[in-house]
Structure formats: C-alpha cells, structure tokens
Design a protein that fits this description.
- By secondary structure, the chain is an all-alpha fold.
- It has a domain of about 35 residues.
- Helix content is about 50%, strand content about 0%.
- The chain has 2 helices and no strands.
- The longest helix has 18 residues.
- The termini are far apart.
C-alpha cells in the first residue's frame, strides 16, 4: 500500500501558536497611513509589519 504524506502544515509549526496578548498604542492618522502603506508594500498585514519592525529593533538593542 502506498503511503501519501498528509497535506497542510506540519504539527508544531508556528501557525499552531496563537498570539493572544494585544499591545495597544496611539498613533496619528498619518503614522497609521504610513504603517499601512509600508505593510502593503512588503505584502504583510499591518500587525505583522509592526511586529516585524519591533522585533528587529529589539534584536538590534540586544546586540549592542
């Protein structure tokens, strides 16, 4: 009998983890527009783009 691999993401992938802690910040409308434009340019959601920028800044701070 031929065994076919299961479809979809492998178990234990990062997609199985949920992000359930919101961080709220207040920004000006112009800043939000700039974040949204940058996120769309990079093909990301605004949340993913902001998280990416914050993680990059945190890694930079830790390496100094």
């Amino acid at each position: 009998m031929k065994v076919t691999p299961k479809r979809g993401r492998p178990k234990g992938s990062i997609a199985d983890k949920t992000r359930d802690i919101p961080i709220q910040i207040k920004v000006f409308a112009e800043e939000q527009d700039a974040y949204r434009t940058a996120a769309e340019r990079d093909g990301l959601t605004m949340s993913a783009w902001i998280r990416q920028q914050l993680n990059r800044a945190a890694r930079s701070e830790c390496s100094e």
